[in-house]
Design goal:
Helix content is about 30%, strand content about 25%. It is an alpha+beta fold. Bound molecules: zinc ion (2 copies).
Length: about 400
């Protein structure tokens, strides 16, 4: 409530939560009112309810706009800040038609477009957190029976979110200061591009003119942290200027299906070949979503000694995965990846070279064997990530 959405006197808060997180959600609502919130609403869902549409509904159910999307759109008008509490099984939708899932997500992204647009521009305070459930915990700790896996996952989440610390608020302030200093360093450098080098990865990326890195607290008047945990400093590639091959180093849950062992060949910014050892059809469905869903929208730097990676786990969860290592996002770029981008229209952002899509899926490419170099205007290279660790000090 204080670090994530920075609730202050008079704020309105919308909590999007899962039924597996009832106890935590009640605590969040209590704390939000104690921090001065004037109104707190909770929008509930869970894996069972989400899956029922595709498992038992008619085909047309995949094209309908849910009331939740209407609520999200309206929350922009009422000036709500938004905390999203996610508790999902990485394989929740494995046995339903993935094409329907993609259709539903697209239709509802479009219906709630003003909400997602304002979110990307950081126009309201928002944060995303995740809490354990049995299915997710078992996928992370397959050797531990039932509830023991849930306890292990809670402990890992507490460590990565700095909650086990004597003074979590100070620990977060120090960590945010480090990320902000790294953001400032990279913005000052104004590299023209990046080169990724590792096993199965040989990729070059160019930046759009006036590119901007973000890390820690967004540079806006309000204090909040879009993700907890967060270990990244990120920017965006030019939509047409990514070339080479890139291999994912961690599995990724796409459209409710676990996708493993995947790699992309990229030409002129577009993924021209995609192969996965598991989950190929979900991956292909994602890439087919729209114009921008076979292009990249984000390049993020995360050290392998970060609080999330230190746990040495395979998280099977997008929020924890993206903070586990350097990642690249398939799909939409954030307007903040361009200097002054928050005030630009979508047409202006596209013209400046930022990718536009209804999807945004981060996949991990980092490991102790992967290095990322910043390319200077004169063609020389400087390490940003060296064998998995920060290649520069601040
Ligand atoms: Zn990221
Ligand atoms: Zn991302």
């Amino acid at each position: 409530v204080k670090i994530g959405v920075g609730i202050e006197s008079g704020d309105r808060l919308l909590v999007r939560s899962f039924l597996d997180a009832v106890d935590l959600t009640r605590m969040i609502v209590d704390e939000a009112y104690r921090s001065g919130a004037e109104n707190v609403d909770v929008l509930w869902s869970d894996d069972h309810i989400g899956r029922a549409r595709f498992a038992h509904g008619p085909d047309s159910a995949a094209d309908s706009v849910s009331g939740a999307s209407d609520w999200l759109r309206r929350s922009v008008e009422t000036g709500d800040h938004v905390l999203t509490v996610v508790s999902t099984d990485p394989n929740a939708l494995a046995d339903v038609d993935v094409e329907r899932v993609a259709r539903f997500r697209k239709a509802n992204f479009e219906a709630a477009e003003p909400f997602f647009d304002a979110m990307g521009r950081l126009s309201f305070k928002w944060s995303i957190i995740c809490t354990p459930n049995l299915a997710w915990a078992r996928s992370v700790f397959p050797g531990s029976p039932g509830e023991e896996a849930v306890e292990l996952l809670w402990s890992a989440i507490f460590r990565t979110c700095r909650i086990d610390n004597d003074d979590p608020l100070t620990a977060w302030a120090e960590h945010i200061a480090d990320l902000n200093a790294r953001e400032a360093h990279l913005n000052e450098k104004q590299y023209v591009g990046l080169r990724y080098d590792g096993p199965g990865t040989d990729l070059t990326v160019s930046f759009p003119e006036g590119h901007h890195w973000e890390g820690g607290n967004p540079n806006v008047s309000a204090t909040f942290l879009p993700n907890i945990p967060t270990e990244e400093v990120f920017g965006a590639p030019h939509v047409d200027r990514v070339d080479g091959v890139v291999t994912a180093t961690k599995p990724l849950s796409i459209l409710g299906n676990l996708v493993e062992g995947f790699r992309f060949e990229v030409e002129g910014g577009r993924i021209v070949d995609a192969s996965a050892e598991r989950g190929q059809s979900a991956l292909e469905q994602l890439l087919r979503t729209d114009e921008g869903s076979a292009r990249f929208g984000e390049v993020a730097m995360v050290p392998v000694s970060g609080a999330v990676a230190r746990e040495g786990l395979i998280w099977n969860n997008p929020l924890f995965d993206e903070n586990d290592g350097c990642h690249i996002a398939i799909g939409n770029a954030y307007p903040t990846s361009l200097e002054g981008g928050s005030a630009m229209t979508k047409v202006e952002l596209a013209a400046a070279g930022l990718n536009q899509s209804s999807v945004h899926e981060d996949f991990v490419v980092g490991s102790p064997e992967v290095s990322v170099y910043g390319i200077r205007g004169d063609g020389g290279e400087e390490p940003i990530i060296s064998k998995g660790e920060w290649g520069f000090s601040v």
